[in-house]
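>> Question from a student workshop board

For tomorrow's exercise we were told to take the sequence and the ligand below, predict the bound structure, and bring the output to class. My setup keeps failing. Could a helper post the expected result so I can at least see what it should look like? The ligand is adenosine monophosphate.
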Amino acid sequence: MKSALETSFKNKKALIRVDFNVPLNSNFEVADNSRIKAAKPTIDHVLNDGGACILISHLGRPEGKDPSLSLKHILREAEKCLGRKIKFIDDCIGQKVESAAEALLPGEVLMLENLRFYKQEVLGDELFSQKLSKAGDVYVNDAFGTSHRNHASTSTVAGFFNEKCAGLLLLKEVDAIGKVLKSKTSPVTAIIGGAKVSSKIPIIKNLLSIADNLVIGGGMAYTFIKSKGGEVGKSIYEPEMIPICEDLMLEAKKNGVSFFLPKDVIAAKEFSNNSKTKVIGAHNIDENWMGLDIGPETEKYFASIILKSQTILWNGPLGVFEMDAFSGGTRAVAISVTEATKKGCFSLVGGGDSVAALIKFNLFEKVSYVSTGGGAMLESLEGNTLPGIAALL
Ligand code: AMP
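>> Workshop helper replied:
Here is what the output should look like for this input. Compare the format with yours to find the bug.
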C-alpha cells in the first residue's frame, strides 16, 4: 500500500476520503472535533507538497438529502482545526462539483456535501463512484473509521484512479493494529469487555492465535461464567452462546492462551446508579442480583496480568462505567493499562466505549495509541483485510 508520503501532489488535486462523521449538538455545532484534527496531517502534507485538497465524508445516516446532516454544519470547525479557509459545494458529484474542483488552486481546500445524501454511496455503486472520481487526480483514503465499509467513497472509487494512496492517519491505525497482530513482544494481553459476547466472538477467536492472556470482563463475562457452571443471577448473559464460550475456552487451553475471568463482582439489585450493591463471588451471584462491575479482588488480579504485559489490546468496558457506582473496575483497568504503558508496554485501545472511558477518566493521552475506528479496528483484529485497504493495494 502506497503512502501519501511517497506520492507527489505537486499541482495535483487530491480527492481525500476523510472521516468527518462527528457528533453535532442541538445547535448543529461540532461536539467533538477529534476526527477533524486527526485528518490534519494528511491535508497539511498534500498542501505543503503543492497540491489542492477535495475533502469527502459522510455525516450520520441520512435517508436522502437531510439538511440537519449537511457537512456545511462542520465547515467553521473544520476551518478552525485546519487553520485555513475551506470552500464548500452543496453536492458531491456533478457539474458544479467538477467546475469547483477544476478551479481549485494549489494550497486550496474544497469540501463536498455529505456522501450519504446519495444512497449509491453505501451501495458502492460504480456509476456514482465514477462521477465522484472526476473531482480529483489522486485518491487518498484517510478514513480508517469507515474503511471496513465496502462503500463507493471508501472502496469502489479507488478503481477509477491511476494514482491512489493511504493517508497518514490510516497508516498510523494500520501500524498500531499491526503491532498487536504481529507482536513479537510477549506477553500479549487482550482485555475484552462490553455487554454482549455474541458481538465479540470473531475477535476472540482471532486473538486465540495472537494473545498470551485473554482477560474478559463486562457483561460478556457472565456467559463464560455460566458455561463453567457458575450462578449469575439476573446478570446479562446469552444462553445460546454457552456452547461457543465452552469451545473458546477449550481452544484457548489448546493454544496455551491463559483465560482470565472475574473472581468477584459488584452486584446490584437494580440496573441503577442508586441501587443497593454488594461485592460477591462472580460464580455465586444470588438470584435477583446482577453483576454490573468487576470487584476489588478482580481489579488486583487483572492488574497483576496487565502490569506484566509487553503488548496490550483493550476493547470494551469492564462494567457499566457510564454509572459512577459501576465505573471503578473500568477505571482500575484503565489505570493499570497506563501504568504498563509507562513501563514500556505498547497499548492499543479502541472501540467507542473504551475510548469514552479513557476520556471520562482523563487517561486518553496515557496509552500508546487510541484507534479512531471502533468497528474498523475490530474487523482488522478479526484478521480481515478491510475493503478500504484492499482497494489501495
Ligand atoms: P459493547 O458495545 O458490546 O462494547 O458494550 C458496551 C456496553 O456494555 C456499555 O454501555 C456498558 O455499560 C455495558 N456493560 C458493561 N458491563 C456490563 C454488565 N456487567 N452488565 C450490563 N452491561 C454492561
